[in-house]
């Protein structure tokens, strides 16, 4: 079993903000390309990993 790299709050939050902004633009009908399956899985995995890291890096 390989050890996952710890994602710090600033790095993870920046990535999540980009995904949230993209989703808001799509929902508001602004010109924005749809999420690719790869983009969606990267966003989901980042959020999951941040929420399941060991303390003090557990951001759930």
From TrEMBL:
Q: Which domain of life is it from?
A: Eukaryota
Provide the protein name: Cullin-1-like
Q: Which residues cross the membrane?
A: none
By its UniProt entry, which PANTHER family does this protein fall under? CULLIN
Q: What is the lineage of its organism?
A: Eukaryota, Viridiplantae, Streptophyta, Embryophyta, Tracheophyta
Species of origin: Trifolium medium
């Amino acid at each position: 079993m390989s050890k996952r790299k710890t994602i710090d709050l600033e790095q993870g939050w920046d990535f999540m903000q980009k995904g949230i902004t993209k989703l808001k633009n799509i929902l508001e009908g602004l010109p924005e390309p749809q999420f690719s399956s790869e983009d969606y899985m990267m966003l989901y995995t980042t959020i999951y990993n941040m929420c399941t890291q060991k303390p003090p890096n557990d951001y759930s």
